[in-house]
Amino acid sequence: MTQGTPRVAGRRLPGPDELRNNGVVKNVGEARENPTGTPQEELATGERSTRNRVARSILDHGPSTVAELAERLGLTQAAVRRHLDALAGDGVVEAREQRVYGARTRGRPAKAFALTDCGRDAFDQSYDKLAADALRWIADREGGNEAIAAFARARIAAQAGAYREAVEAAAPEQRTEALAKALSADGYAATARSAPHPQKGEQLCQHHCPVAHVAEQFPQLCEAETEFFAELLGTHVQRLATIAHGDGVCTTFIPKISHNASASTAGRNPA
């Protein structure tokens, strides 16, 4: 797992070099606590940057108290608490009782703030590279290409239940739309629309592909998905474009079929 350029709530977090620019952090804190006429948009950007630095500091140093973060980043404790409250509200950090070794002193121990699983996931991971390396290792073995294709089909089959349930519950003329909604629930941002004239049918558009980087190297993933769409919808379908191939959207053409044909094939299991 790498600890590269992170993102929180869809925003890029600064890298390690930026995070150690404490002079910038001090200026941001002073600007927020002592307004100097700086445009509000710049102040908001500074707030986000400092908040990201707080999260990165916890990642680099482990669970930290308010005092530790304030000293490390050159901020006041009040500023640190404000940023921690915002990060906690986003589910990025959580407060924990600090573990005390040796004799306890009077008073309650200071709370330490740690990243949640969600917070760690906001930092860049190397899952795509790990998956691609694993598939490449398989592909380099005898019969590797066939094994990759079998894996791709098995992966689709493992996900098929929710898609099949959604399609079979829909009226025949609404099955492409039902499939699009089920795909969207899995992060594919899919839509269904009528195909442009003179084609007779629909287009299933996936505006996002969670496995696009791996599929660039292993098109068997796209091919297995296309085969599954055909089986599920009960008709031959045609892949017109894929994000993995460099297109802006994965587009699948689904020809118009008779309702009887779709009803007789929608219940089959994927190969």
UniProtKB/TrEMBL annotation:
Coiled coil: none annotated. Residues 1-50 are annotated as: Disordered. Residues 49-94 form the HTH arsR-type domain. CDD domains: HTH_ARSR. It comes from the Bacteria. This is Transcriptional regulator.
